[in-house]
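Exercise 7. Given the encoded structure of a 129-residue chain, write a plausible sequence.
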């Protein structure tokens, strides 16, 4: 599984769906890939820098750098999706044969007929009373 910038922000906010997905992958001995571009894109909106550091040091999360040799593929992917971070997440998922967990599935509509994603549905707000 790949976390995009929306999943990174959800991790920072401790959204149950993200922690559940990560827990299931960890239980299977797997890792979640997170392109560094997604972490960088999420960082300005993340109010909890400690949670970002927790993400980066999590034993079942691997932060991936973009390789210089990947620029042609990433350039082509940027033509299909919205932004470099989204293109990075899509490329990693396609290369690994897995899905992107995202709260913004429309960003990926131009890739694999939109079937590259698992939609992240955030927890409903707690009811008062």
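Solution.
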């Amino acid at each position: 599984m790949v976390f995009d910038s929306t999943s990174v922000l959800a991790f920072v906010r401790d959204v149950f769906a993200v922690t559940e997905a990560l827990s299931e992958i960890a239980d299977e001995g797997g890792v979640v890939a997170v392109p560094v571009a997604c972490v960088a894109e999420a960082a300005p909106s993340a109010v909890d820098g400690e949670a970002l550091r927790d993400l980066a040091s999590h034993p079942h999360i691997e932060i991936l750098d973009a390789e210089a040799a990947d620029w042609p593929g990433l350039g082509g992917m940027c033509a299909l999706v919205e932004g470099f971070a989204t293109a990075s997440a899509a490329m990693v998922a396609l290369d690994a044969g897995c899905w992107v967990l995202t709260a913004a599935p429309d960003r990926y509509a131009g890739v694999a007929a939109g079937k590259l994603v698992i939609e992240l549905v955030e927890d409903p707000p707690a009811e008062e009373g």
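Remark. Residues 2-119 form a domain with the Rossmann fold fold (CATH 3.40.50.1010). Students should compare their own answers with the one above.
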